Amino acid sequence: MTSIKGTNLAILASGTGTNFKDIVESAQRNELPVEVKLLITDKEEIGAIAHAKNLQIPFVVIKPRSFLNFDDWDHEVAETLVNYEIEFVVLAGFLRKIGPHTLEAVKGQMINTHPSLLPSYGGKGMYGINVHKAVVENGEKVSGCTVHWVNDHYDEGQIIGQKQVEVLPDDTPESLASRVKAVENPFLIAVLKSVLSKNQS
Ligand code: GRF
């Protein structure tokens, strides 16, 4: 990678987009050496798109349903990343499996944030409130979030960092979710900063 100051970043999201918003705002305050060039979503009318409009970030909706098969969808996502000259991708609540063409388009420079201490509570179906429900139901004392490199299996890439959050005796899945989220947003930004600075050196 030639220049890290202003690494071209894309964020992929399927939901409320709080992580997307925080990354864009940090970049706009010059606290992160990235230019957020693009939001890619797999759905219309989600919070992440509303944030992209407010923050004037281009967005592209690439719905799997519009393609014959996974491979064609994967090609379209990859081609979009190449067209926008994207060097690094953050998955921030993106609920689709990433395909090999998409990974190759950024040479594997792709990280994901997950709201549990992986490898616990990861994998297919383990997203959003499902994760926190399972953590509370199993009587865990500690949960948290994980940032990891992405490969073509759900939540299985190499772990970069984790942040723990105590599970309180009276926690509901919702209360735990909101405390994990509060920790997760700044943690993702800190990890992103650190990964980019290591790329640079
Ligand atoms: C985060 O909790 C992340 O761990 C998970 O999806 C959630 C996305 O939240 N993968 P938001 O859309 O950024 O608010």
Structure description:
By secondary structure, the protein is an alpha/beta fold. The protein has a single domain (7-115, 146-162, 184-200), classed as Formyl transferase, N-terminal domain (Rossmann fold, 3-Layer(aba) Sandwich). The protein is built from 6 helices and 7 strands, in the order E-H-E-H-E-H-E-H-E-H-E-E-H. Strands 3-2-1-4-5-6-7 form a 7-stranded mixed sheet, covered by helices on one side. Strand 1 (7-13), helix 1 (18-28) and strand 2 form a beta-alpha-beta unit. Helix 1 packs parallel to helix 6 (173-200). The radius of gyration is 16 Å and the shape is globular. 5-O-phosphono-beta-D-ribofuranosylamine binds next to helix 1, strand 5 and helix 6. The site of 5-O-phosphono-beta-D-ribofuranosylamine (GRF) has 15 residues, from helix 1, strand 5 and helix 6.
Unreliable spans: none
CATH superfamily: Formyl transferase, N-terminal domain
Number of strands: 7
Query: Architecture in CATH?
Result: 3-Layer(aba) Sandwich
Question: What distance lies between the first and last C-alpha atoms, to the nearest angstrom?
Answer: 10 Å
Unique ligands: 5-O-phosphono-beta-D-ribofuranosylamine
Report the sheet-strand fraction.
Answer: 15-25%
The main pleated sheet reads as: 7 strands, mixed
- Which strand order spans the largest sheet, edge to edge or round the barrel? 3-2-1-4-5-6-7
Mean pLDDT: 94
The radius of gyration computed from the alpha-carbon positions, rounded to a whole number of angstroms, is 16 Å
Shape: globular
Percent range for helical residues? 25-40%
- Helix and strand element order: EHEHEHEHEHEEH
Number of helices: 6
Structural class: alpha/beta
Query: The CATH topology, please?
Result: Rossmann fold
> What's the CATH first level?
Alpha Beta
Q: How many separate domains? A: 1
